[in-house]
């Protein structure tokens, strides 16, 4: 009985919460969608399979928040965090992590920047996700060499542009 | 001479970075602007002065990232973090922190939720920022009683709606 | 020329790395596979769509490390972390988070335990992933009421058992 | 009725809190004021607009605690943390981050120091705030090249000295 009352109370509380937030939009129009994220992830996983090295692949949205993630069997455990941080780094500074990292080498002006933001990644494997000229997130890949990671990240990013083009054509 | 070459190299790197990101939009249209944030902060500080308790006031944008912050002279140092976490909590769950906190009391279903997300706040003082039916961020206030903090946060949130209305009228 | 030597060195280093780890198995036989994780995620997303509340869904493997993650459009940003922590909590203590949470209520012996492990979740929505009587990971779901989150998590966990049964039948 | 008693109790508790702290001063005389912080921020934002690169600007007081912060529209999300850490670094070691960073280069004696204090910044863009020969805080700026960030930080720091001089003249 008590459980029932509790449940009803919870339903009311959550109902109110939902009712309250129902009329407002909870996210900005134009942000990375899950459908797009899945398309990108599938393309990246396909590329990773071709290369033959197990990868961690992470996507963040325009706000830098995790949208989708997958770890292939046998991929480095330490690359879970690196994949996420590559995506975040690319989005946080609006450029591929390879470009960003070039300015963070010893003797270059951003040397040491990786100690900020709870850890950034200053080598390749993070690429921007751009739809119709707007940055809507980023993809980070870790598991192979930097060249391999970058190839997988670019395969993902390119899949968005292709789907974005076909999206426009359908109108 | 070496310094000159270094400078030129840096200018090139940064120039390239800028050139690369120039044609793309770096943020989603419709997000909280600095001008709006300043209007909201000014209204909140005005309310705080009327109440007479020094406050910490923080605003985050739609992605939950800090947009503006101010600490009045004499405000609790411990409230810097609370103000930020109130804004983040409100945005992360799309409701005022008072509503959110109601479901996190002992015996309620979200009891203990404040241990997630590096710390959430489960009492009042965090309010949503809504423009034309879209959540574009949140304001968090800390320094006085929960009632006082909430009053200041609401004064800020209301200032956005007022400016949003006058914005529409001017078209 | 220097760049070429550098490239060759990198290829050698990475090649050696790969060559070195080739003969050893990098993960336990029987751990949650990406294919299973995708099956579970798909079932959970299907259930979430039926319920009509956008969810965050996270799976960890037997080692408690993130295997797959997805956030539906409009799902709470704060639920990214909660979904992950629900999966981790379930796996770390080998029981659903609802059971775990029951022992963490005020007056119960694990009261306060959510402050450990960088934050645990002490309410429902985290379920174990069991294959042939072995815990191979956990699923955590966050976005709706605890009852809704739990329903989605169970839909995912059940999909593993179904696929595990059909897997055995095919032999 | 119960709610009323609860409210009264809260008023008493909070009232006592206020009454208790009323006779003691809660902050050091001479610390950075919000008014000064606003003057400095305005000058820094003005300089940033002249340069034409969106910036993150953070000020900490003598205790190294955040006093004011603003992020211009389109400024790097990753620079929120860097601006704060530049201000903190400058104040924690009582020198501009450029000077501090010079001692943290490879081969120099503070090499690696950026890994302490939850992350320090070892390049320019953090400047001290000095009033009448006393360090009262620091300003950190991030968003452009190091040269641009430094120019904006210095514009802010100079505005304090100017206002400090005119402050003295008025007596």
UniProtKB/TrEMBL annotation, chains A, B, C, D:
Record flagged with keyword Cell membrane: no
SUPFAM superfamilies xrefs: GlcG-like
Position of the signal peptide: 1-21
Record flagged with keyword RNA-binding: no
Domain of life the protein comes from: Bacteria
Pfam family name, one: HbpS-like
InterPro entries, A to Z: GlcG_carb_metab_protein, PduO/GlcC-like, PduO/GlcC-like_sf
Protein name: Uncharacterized protein GlcG (DUF336 family)
Keywords: Signal
């Amino acid at each position: 009985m008590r459980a029932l009352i509790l449940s009803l109370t919870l339903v009311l509380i959550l109902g109110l919460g939902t009712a309250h937030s129902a009329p407002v939009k909870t996210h900005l129009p134009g942000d990375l969608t899950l459908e797009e994220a899945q398309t990108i992830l599938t393309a990246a996983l396909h590329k990773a399979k071709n290369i033959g090295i197990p990868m961690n692949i992470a996507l963040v949205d325009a706000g830098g928040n995790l949208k989708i993630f997958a770890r292939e069997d046998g991929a480095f455990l330490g690359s879970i965090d690196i994949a996420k941080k590559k995506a975040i780094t690319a989005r946080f500074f609006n450029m591929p992590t390879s470009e960003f990292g070039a300015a963070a080498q010893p003797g270059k002006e951003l040397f040491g920047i990786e100690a900020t933001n709870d850890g950034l990644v200053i080598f390749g494997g993070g690429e921007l996700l751009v739809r119709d000229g707007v940055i809507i997130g980023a993809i980070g890949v870790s598991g192979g060499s930097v060249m391999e990671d970058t190839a997988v990240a670019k395969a993902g990013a390119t899949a968005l542009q292709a789907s974005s083009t076909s999206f426009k054509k359908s109108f």
